[in-house]
Amino acid sequence: METFIHKYRPKYFKDFYLNDDLNDLIQLLFAVNSINILLIGDSSSGKTCLLNIILREYYELGPNERFSNENILFVNNLKEQGIQYFRTEMKTFCQSQSTIKGKKKFVVIDDIDNINDQCQQVFRNYIDKYGNNIHFISSCTNAQKVIESLQSRLHLLKLSSINNENLKKIMHNIKENEKLQIDDESIDYLISITNNSIHQIVNYFEKIYILNQPVNIELCKKICSNIYMKDFEDYIIFIKSKNLKKGIECLQKIYNYGYSVIDILDYFFFFVKRTESLTEEEKYIIIPYLCKYITIFNNVHENKIELTLLTNNLINLL
């Protein structure tokens, strides 16, 4: 059975929600046969997906055709490969001609901001030397970690995260195709907890498909989060009512499910930012204190007794 991630991954430009200006620019680069691109965007912007679409469109491949290793060099795990890789394997690849008449070869580097400056310098030199034979496309999250001389040789395309309107179109398309029974409130909830990550949403939809039953907001909250958010809602009620015993028992129950203290704090931090059970003023009070606990657990120690101390402190704060 084909997974939802593979099934609904965009294969062509028409499937990818790209704004008109970027789409026109990419089409222009195709027309002049100069596809040297640096895609800049956060983790949910679809950089890697767009890289693959560019390759598929350029070589006019079918939706299930594989990329040719003879014409495309994917460079990954650059921290381990080091500069020697650029001076040997990549050089050999760049010196040979494409096996497809009228087409250039591609060097594809995902997360180029993870490469050190020396490696980027070698890569820049290869663009100058082999540009008549090779297209160079890459992606990064932090453009400040890409050297200026390399940026000047690439067309910089900034991708923003998909907006809620387009995200809902994708979700409703999957909902209709797979005949999923999920209400609009649950769809809005999924968008809020995934930070507009299509990858996470599609995974949750596959979970709902496997469940094979109608999903309302209560069930959605239970199955579409690692820690049941209702437990945190109850915890907030106990904190506000100054019920220390019940508050401690609530976090202890989550801990007994097998979650570590830092997991509980991370998810509680996520919950606090998005819940409507707390006012903005209450969030402003809780979040700095919660961050202090998370920092201590990450840098110093982790002990479940701290959950009790946190509960007591939050009761005193509120």
Automatic annotation (TrEMBL):
Keyword set includes Lipid metabolism: no
MF terms in GO: ATP binding; DNA binding; DNA clamp loader activity
Domain AAA, chain residue ranges per copy: 37-154
One Pfam family in the UniProt entry: AAA_14
Keywords, sorted A to Z: ATP-binding, DNA replication, Nucleotide-binding
GO biological process: DNA repair; DNA-templated DNA replication
Keyword Zinc among record annotations: no
Family matches, as InterPro entries: AAA_14, DNA_pol3_clamp-load_cplx_C, DNA_Rep/Repair_Clamp_Loader, P-loop_NTPase
Cellular compartments per GO CC: DNA replication factor C complex
PANTHER family documented for this protein: REPLICATION FACTOR C / DNA POLYMERASE III GAMMA-TAU SUBUNIT, REPLICATION FACTOR C SUBUNIT 4
Name of the protein this chain belongs to: AAA domain-containing protein
